[in-house]
Write a structure and sequence with these properties.
CATH topology: Rossmann fold
Radius of gyration: 18 Å
Distance between the termini: 36 Å
CATH class: Alpha Beta
Oligomer: single chain
Number of domains: 1
Helix content: 25-40%
C-alpha cells in the first residue's frame, strides 16, 4: 500500500493502530510526518505484554496526536486463551529460542482474528471522524508468520471497509484506504526510517513475554520470536539496540 504525501497545510484525520511496539510507533511517526492529524487507537486485550500500553501513551504524547483511546477488550483474552500463548491465563507457553528464519508454521503467539477486530474498531472511529485512512504496522517480511499480516488480508479488509460503510458506498467504493508503510520493509529499514523521524525505540516493547525491574520498567526476555527479530533488526541496521534484556549479557 502506498503512503500518500500530504500537501503542506493540508492535514487530514487518520486513525493509527498503536500498540507501543517498534513497528506501530514507527507507523505513528510516518503518519505524523505525512501531515496527518492522528487519532491513535490501542487495545488492552489481556496480553502478557500489557506494559506496551504505557509506551503507547508516551509515544502518542511525544508525537502530538489529537486523541489516544485505549479500548478494553480483556474479555477477548479469556475467549482466545486456549488458542494463543500471548494472553494472560493461557496454559500455552511463549516459544523461546526458535529459529525464526526457518519457522514455517503459524506460531502459538498468533491471536485469533486480532487484526480483524482491531481494524474494525479503527474503521468505526474513522468513519465517525470522517477520516479516510487507517494505518497499521503489519510486516510481511521480518515477522512471525501471522495470517493477518499478509498483503492479501490487507487488500481484503480494505475492500470490505468500502463495502461495509456509508462513506465507502457513497464514495464509489474507493473512499477508505488502509495504509501499511512497513509491509514490505526489512526490520533494519524500519528502524532506520524510525530513527530518521526521531523515534525513541528505548521506549517501545516488542517482547512477547517481558518482565519488569524494580522500577517497573520493561525487561525483554531476549529469546522469543519478537525479541530475536528486533535484535537482528538493530544489528543489521548498524545501530545500538536500546532494548533492556533480562540478562544484560544476552
Amino acid at each position: 500500500m502506498s503512503v500518500p504525501t500530504q500537501a503542506k497545510g493540508a492535514a487530514s484525520a487518520a486513525v493509527v493502530l498503536l500498540s507501543g511496539g517498534l513497528d506501530s510507533v514507527t507507523v505513528l511517526a510516518i503518519a505524523r510526518a505525512a501531515g496527518h492529524d492522528v487519532h491513535a487507537l490501542s487495545f488492552r486485550y489481556g496480553q502478557r505484554h500489557a506494559m506496551e500500553l504505557g509506551c503507547a501513551a508516551r509515544q502518542a504524547q511525544r508525537f502530538g496526536v489529537v486523541a489516544h483511546e485505549v479500548i478494553d477488550l480483556r474479555h477477548l483474552g479469556r475467549l482466545v486463551a486456549p488458542a494463543t500463548a500471548l494472553v494472560e491465563g493461557s496454559e500455552l507457553s511463549v516459544p523461546k529460542g526458535r529459529d525464526v528464519d526457518q519457522a514455517g508454521d503459524i506460531p502459538v503467539t498468533y491471536v485469533p482474528a486480532r487484526n480483524t477486530l482491531f481494524l474494525s474498531y479503527a474503521l468505526a472511529w474513522a468513519e465517525a471522524l470522517d477520516a479516510r485512512e487507517l494505518w497499521i504496522g503489519v510486516n510481511a517480511l521480518d515477522y512471525s508468520g501471522y495470517p493477518d499480516c499478509r498483503p492479501e488480508f490487507i487488500q481484503a479488509f480494505e475492500r470490505m471497509a468500502n463495502l461495509a460503510t456509508r462513506v465507502g458506498v457513497e464514495g464509489g467504493g474507493d473512499a477508505l484506504h488502509l495504509r501499511t508503510p512497513l509491509i514490505d520493509l526489512p526490520k533494519a529499514d524500519i528502524i532506520r526510517r524510525g530513527l530518521e523521524l526521531g523515534v525513541d525505540y528505548a521506549d517501545t516493547v516488542s517482547c512477547y513475554d517481558p518482565s519488569a525491574d524494580a522500577d517497573q520498567r520493561p525487561l525483554a526476555c531476549g529469546r522469543c520470536d519478537s525479541c530475536q527479530l528486533r535484535r537482528k533488526g538493530f544489528q543489521r541496521a548498524g545501530v545500538p539496540d536500546p532494548t533492556r534484556y533480562v540478562d544484560a549479557n544476552d
